[in-house]
Amino acid sequence: MSHTDIAVPDGVNNSLNIAISADGTAEVGRTYQIPARCGVAVRLARGQVLHIVNPSGSQVCDFFAFAAACLHEHLSMAHLHTSLASLFPKVGDALVSNQRRPLLTITADTSPGVHDTVIACCDHARYRELGCEGYHDNCADNLRMALMAIGLKAPLIPAPFNIWMNVPVQADGSTSFQPPVARAGDCISLRAEVELIAVMSACPQDITPVNGAGVSPDILAFRVSAS
Amino acid sequence: MSHTDIAVPDGVNNSLNIAISADGTAEVGRTYQIPARCGVAVRLARGQVLHIVNPSGSQVCDFFAFAAACLHEHLSMAHLHTSLASLFPKVGDALVSNQRRPLLTITADTSPGVHDTVIACCDHARYRELGCEGYHDNCADNLRMALMAIGLKAPLIPAPFNIWMNVPVQADGSTSFQPPVARAGDCISLRAEVELIAVMSACPQDITPVNGAGVSPDILAFRVSAS
Fold first, then answer.
1. pTM across the whole model
2. Residue B2's pLDDT band (boundaries 50, 70, 90)?
3. Do A1 and B87 make contact, defined as CB atoms within 8 angstroms?
């Protein structure tokens, strides 16, 4: 399948209908739920902190961020690897863009801190590979739809920050998909260093154990605080 | 620096003037040289093999590929990590696109096989970070210019396949930039599985030892064979 317009999803789900407001601005302090298998966008002012909660402990959040001033500037894992000299960001680390500018800083993380930065988000092609015949919810489309729901278009599908995704990397470079090691209620907090649009997708992967050994995609929750 | 048009380089070098032909088609069997610090595009028919040679042994090739039918389909390291279950491709492996389609297969590699798939290509922002004040040649711009030189526009700057770039990954995920371990004259061969545009940039990094302890960017060479 070849996109002439990269912003158009391969299929649709309820992500199109669950924007938290017309432009993605959140009510400070309010807790929002992300339905299982869906994506939601949130607009963050500089200095605001986004707290993402994993109610089940077993759910992965595919996380994307774009500078509000120009969506072509986006969180980039390949650039992050250079700035951190590591594959694994931790509390205190800045998460940089493809312009090598810090977009967010991890200010807190109650989980064991196991997150992935090397694996692409799931997409229509991934589920075809895994044997699905019809449409399967996927994080690439959730990103597209979450942006459409607040009137924006994805200019590309960046490699995501896969929060709670457990992909150990062995000394020989080999990788594997393992169940998350987070605990129910774990929370990661990300401070916006510029005005940005963050998108969180509650990963709908239900074939590999990315979202737990039970392969049952679950909800996520989030709230925004002023600092 | 924020690009409204991602295809426009931050500065220019001779990459604009060294296209091997109007549309990037190579003369089969002819050896072409890539000047130090520059990028060149080559159009490959399905089944043709691209042989990239490292005359000095110490030069990194930032490698990109786009499906000729739609440049939005491009070689993707994040998707490759899923398809290979590894960070390190080897002879026999297919290199997939963001549509999870094999674009190329590594058919031979006379080098020790140490290549990188996690680090972003160098760009204007990287050299500013490293203290450069004026314009510095960079692989992102070399990609843009190599495509412009054959009448195309880069729709994005994908994370590259960094051929001969030596970035060991430790068990804790930490990375470091080490000199290449290739030998003078080493060659990697890549078979095109679809018609595609490949771009090779002779990485101009002369501050970190990416291109050898002597930090002296050098030439690369290539030729195309029918099979």
1. 0.97
2. very low
3. no
